[in-house]
Amino acid sequence: MDGGPADTDRSGHGTFVAGLIAARPVPRSGFVGLAPAATILPIRVTGDPGAVDPDRLAAGIRRAVDSGARVVAVGLIGTGDTPALRAAVTAARERDVLVVASAAVRRVGQRAFPASLDGVLAVSPVGPDGLAKSVLLGARPALAAPAEQLVGIGPSGSGHRLAAGPELAVGYAAGAAALVRARHPALTAAETITRLTDTADAPAAPDPTIGAGVVNPVAAVTTIAPEPRRTTPPSEHIAIPDRSTVDKRPARVAVWFVAGLAALTLVATGAVTAVAHARRRSGARSRVDP
């Protein structure tokens, strides 16, 4: 964090990402964010989207977690790896907070952080024709999201903006994650990632540049999860004795038991009949006697 308030946006970058996630509907406008009921907690970590200090990013993630965020959208391209950043991501994972980050990098040979860390939902950018043009990946993406020809909001004014950039895919994926966590609050962060990847629009052939496929927010929210697989019970060994050595006493006991049960039934029936008959005779006397 750079010490300044996060309620203003000089570049408009953060506002655009936030709008993709949770822009509210307004009259005479067809634009709305993926999760318009979500609450945005703006945290500034840099004044220049092209210059990201990993320790400031770590401080921003920690502040988001401490403030109660369930999804943290890192709408920047980060390539710095520090102990502070790793610790912040570990803390988020331990508190069941889902961190979403871009798998893109700016130069060949770089690694994407925090997208490369365990538990982070790494997102690659796609355009209308597949992987976004001139994009380098520094982490293995779990899935992909739109990042070209996007419509969004600006920090001021009543119009809309068109923008493109690999990090904008984070907004789309984070919005889908917010929807899932709101609709299925019992899911953990890890289970939310699984649901997003299981319901993504998978490519016709495996494509490591887009992971499981392009995120599908509607399917992620509405798909009914399959029931857990039931394991086949272990087979039982049943020993069948030789007929020549069969003990006939259980059969005789069973016959006596059946006979006794029949007698008991008859006795019970007779008792009921006798009681009913006695009641009828008693009733008849009561009607005849003055």
TrEMBL record:
Q: Which residues cross the membrane?
A: 253-276
> Which InterPro entries does its entry note?
Peptidase_S8/S53_dom, Peptidase_S8/S53_dom_sf, Peptidase_S8_His-AS, Peptidase_S8_subtilisin-like
Which SUPFAM superfamilies does the record associate with it? Subtilisin-like
Give the record's keywords alphabetically. Answer: Hydrolase, Membrane, Protease, Serine protease, Transmembrane, Transmembrane helix
Q: At the top level of its lineage, which domain of life is listed?
A: Bacteria
Q: Which GO terms describe its molecular function?
A: serine-type endopeptidase activity
- The entry's protein name is Subtilase family protein
Q: Which organism is it from?
A: Actinokineospora auranticolor
